[in-house]
Amino acid sequence: MLFVQSAYAQSGGASEPNPMFTVLMFTGLFVFMYFMIIRPQRKRQKEHNDLVSALAKGDEVVMTSGMLGKITKLEGEYVVLEVNNNLTLKFQKASVHAVLPKGTIKAI
Known about the structure:
Layout: H1 2-11, H2 19-53, E1 60-63, E2 68-75, E3 78-82, E4 88-92, E5 96-100, H3 104-107
Antiparallel strand pairs: 1-2, 1-5, 2-3, 3-4
């Protein structure tokens, strides 16, 4: 009984926070997360999808692994790259990082 009275006395009769304030805080947090994380990520994903869909035979590309090559064939979700005179490798289209200007590989 002694502890209950002291606990009540320490509370000072403080009331609960306004629930509307809590809702506004969560809404503000969601809006912040949307504009700082979700929206930019969707924009990058759309740009990458556009890049992958525009790939064509003869494009010089760099892969996410850093490998450079020239596209010799497109097979569904895969691309065949010529990385050397007699060496061709098959990669997923999604692993293409960027399309390089023509002649970049010869200049290196």
